[in-house]
Amino acid sequence: VELGTDVAAGDHLRVELDGVDGVWSTLAVYDARGKLLQRRRGRPGELTVLAHLLRPAGDHFYAVVRCGRTFNVEARYSLRVSAAPPAGGSEVEPNDNVARASALPLEQLVTGLLPDVYDRDVFAVPVDRPGLLRVTLSPPLALDASLAVVDGKGKVIQEVDAGGAGKAELIAGVFVQPPRALLRLRARKARAVDPVGSYRLFAKLSSAAAFEREPNGPKGAATPWPEGLSEVSGYLHPVKDIDNFSLRSEQSRGAPG
To answer: DSSP 3-state assignment of 1?
Structure first.
């Protein structure tokens, strides 16, 4: 696919493959040197989308359609390619792991796509002080997505999946420290995805002085009771949430049990 002069360096590419009945397919994008940028597996008869791809270097790129374990010689597929400037804050693909995380500035709305269950969107939130991170994920009507906080190796620290398709997911207050916090989004069910509609992601940081520090479900991860305080706050969220607190003997005399 030729990249003309009307495609700017900051533009995002979008490649769409209309699925063929009975055929498992794969859609991939490579840069001019043949380096894989992104690949997705498509279910029979369903749309496969590679979106928010940053324009690769060079004057062209490759879109590759591959047949899976079945075929169909009666129906044709359709392949579409387009380029446009990013609309406001959006993810930049590929961002499927910590090393490729998209930026999510605090208190700024960012959008993205979860077109299938194979996609993972990872975001890095810059953090300049210890605090409680509150994150809201608002999906389109057809999408059932989970929201997780992960560590620097991609291991899940806390994950919520309390709602169904079209329902918002909330991390009410997880304790984070500089220089960043990492989030991971994924679709949970193959039949509850949306290759066209965008989700919205928003993060906010607040003080953790007199608040629980999630995750504190396991007793070994209990929130330390703040010295000199007789009251702390917290959220019982999501369903089956357990909050444990650790009180030292000298503090417990003036604090509630």
So the answer is: coil
